[in-house]
Amino acid sequence: MRTLILGAAFALASMLPVYAAAPSPAPSAAAPAASASPAPTGADLLKIDDCSLEYNSRSGIPAKLHVDFENLNAQPVTHIRFRIDTGMSSFPVMDVGSFRPKLKIHHDLDPPEVDMHVGYVLTENGIRGGLGCTVDAYTLADGYTWISPRLQFELQHPDLQQAHP
Are 116 and 62 in contact (CB under 8 A)? Predict the structure, then answer.
């Protein structure tokens, strides 16, 4: 009896590699996926090409915020929250619409009516003069919402933001 069980177990074990190897994809099919560059995610899917402030010549208060961007998502974006850093202050600006994929968009948005001066901005590449524009959050047409880690932290710790604007 023991020989019969061992023989059956050996026969089963010898058949397993055949069944396990059959459904795996061919090595040549998997090779291109490993060498492909990673797909953009989050803020990378809304590419800001240009961002500038136009000031009222009499008051020195920003009159328009010009933002050129492209939606790299597979579906339309309906809401975008931009973060504008002047080096001395930071403020959000919302843009609402239906921004189709692969379409370059130029919008003139209304910044807050405050006296602000553009100084130096801390970026990923160091300190530079000028205006910094990033994407804080956006919502796709299907309702999916992406929120930047910085905004998530600020929403979770409002006491820290009020203490350090």
Answer: yes
